[in-house]
Each structure stands twice: as structure tokens, then as C-alpha cells.
Amino acid sequence: MYEWVIIGGGIHGCTVANFLVKSGKTVIDDIRLIDPHAEPMARWKRNTNRIGMEYLRSPVVHHIDIHPFSLQKYSTSGDSRDFYGYYKRPKLDLFNEHSDSVLRDFDIKKAWHQRIIKNGVKSSKTPAIKARLRKSCFIS
């Protein structure tokens, strides 16, 4: 049984899962994160790669970890090209590497469940997910 079920393993779903674990609201074993892709943030990575994004549009403090300057601390290369402009927009590669590191740190794979959910109803071919829900998050 799961305390939290999060639909969507993109940036927002991963941010919610990370916040719940790191803030002590729950443990990873009480979370089920459901997404149609094999890896967290797969759609984000595919789409940003397709358009050739080099830097994010958001400033350095917008990322999936709970500490605002976590991404800036993660950048240890000292390369001035890691961040762009006045708001220090991070390089996409750095953002993705940092995100992967954050997700590994709290072992998101334990919560990951690759499935497609349509209209909030599971397919008859997939096993049921039993949850004792206090909260649920639907992230699109």
C-alpha cells in the first residue's frame, strides 16, 4: 500500500517526490510514481534535445531539489559557461546531470512504476495499485 501516488514522472512529479522524501513527510517506500516512460524526466529530455535547447529559460534557483542553490553548488567545474546572463540561467546539460543526481540520491527507482493511465482508470491488463492515500498528486 502507498501513502502517495503521483501521476507523471516529469520535472513536476519528480520535484514533488523529492520534496516529500527530503522534507521528511514520507519515505520513498510509501510513494508510487506512475509514468509511461522508462526513466524519470524522459519526455523533458527528449523534447529539449529535439529543439536544441542550450540554456534553460528559468534562473538557477528553479530545479527539482529543495534547496534553492543546490544546482549552483553542484556546478563544480568553475566554467563561466555553466550559467548564462543576469539570472544565471543554467546550461541544459548541467540541469539534467544535477536532476539525475538528485533522483539517484533519494532512489526514485524504488517508487517508479511504468504504466499508462487514461482518465484516471487503469487498463484491465495491468495489475491494481493498492494505496492507502492521504494525498494524491496528478501532474501533467
Please characterize this protein's 3D structure.
This is FAD dependent oxidoreductase domain-containing protein. InterPro entries: FAD/NAD-bd_sf. The protein has 140 residues and is of the alpha/beta class. It has one domain. It has helices at residues 11-22, 42-50, 70-74, 92-105; strands spanning 2-7, 31-35, 83-84, 89-90, 112-114, 131-138. It has a 4-stranded parallel β-sheet with strand order 5-2-1-6, with helices on one face. Strand 3 (83-84) and strand 4 (89-90) form a beta hairpin. The mean pLDDT is 88.
Give me a quick take on this structure.
InterPro entries: FAD/NAD-bd_sf (IPR036188). With 140 residues, this protein is an alpha/beta fold. It has helices at 11-22, 42-50, 70-74, 92-105; strands at 2-7, 31-35, 83-84, 89-90, 112-114, 131-138.
Fold topology:
Layout: E1 2-7, H1 11-22, E2 31-35, H2 42-50, H3 70-74, E3 83-84, E4 89-90, H4 92-105, E5 112-114, E6 131-138
Features:
globular, 140 residues, 4 helices, 4-stranded parallel sheet, 6 strands, alpha/beta, single chain, two-stranded antiparallel sheet
Return residue spans where pLDDT drops below 50 for at least 5 consecutive residues.
Answer: none
Radius of gyration: 16 Å
Report how far apart the termini are: 23 Å
Order of helices and strands: EHEHHEEHEE
Q: What portion of the residues fall into strands of 2 or more residues?
A: 15-25%
Total strand count, please?
A: 6
Quick one: biggest sheet?
A: 4 strands, parallel
**Portion in helices:** 25-40%
**Count of the domains:** 1
Q: For this entry, what is the oligomeric state of its chains?
A: single chain
* Helix-strand category: alpha/beta
Instruction: Please give the count of helices.
Output: 4
> In one word, what is the shape?
globular
Mean pLDDT: 88
Side-by-side strand order of the widest sheet: 5-2-1-6
